[in-house]
Write a structure and sequence with these properties.
The chain is mostly beta strands and about 100 residues long. It has one helix and seven strands, in the order E-H-E-E-E-E-E-E. A four-stranded mixed beta sheet has the order 3-2-5-4. Strands 1-6-7 form a three-stranded mixed beta sheet. The two termini are about 15 Å apart.
Length: about 100
């Protein structure tokens, strides 16, 4: 999983603005009938079998089951119609056809 620099900055700013210093960003992925589904949410616990990824200013946790589904994903910031959020692209190879400047 790759997180763009802009997404990292926004995550750190959100943590500071909402007093989430003691929380971790959990990234969860599931696959059902060949379709991938992702969730990003704040969690205050790390499970014994979680995969932990330290970033500057925050920590990401993923379950062992989610990890293989996140191998080639990209987390980025997008603003549409005045609403901003974090999004996950299923495959970084899709970047070639994407119009968003992430890097």
């Amino acid at each position: 999983m790759h997180i763009t620099d802009e997404a990292k900055k926004r995550i750190v700013a959100y943590i500071k603005a909402h007093d989430l210093i003691n929380y971790y960003l959990r990234v969860h992925a599931t696959e059902k009938k060949g379709k991938l589904s992702y969730q990003l949410f704040w969690d205050d616990q790390i499970a014994n079998d979680d995969i932990v990824q330290k970033e500057d200013g925050f920590t990401i946790c993923t379950s062992v089951a989610s990890s293989p589904l996140l191998n080639s994903t990209l987390v980025f910031v997008l603003e549409e119609e005045g609403v901003e959020g974090l999004f996950i692209m299923e495959n970084q190879l899709d970047c070639a056809s994407c119009m968003i400047d992430c890097f």
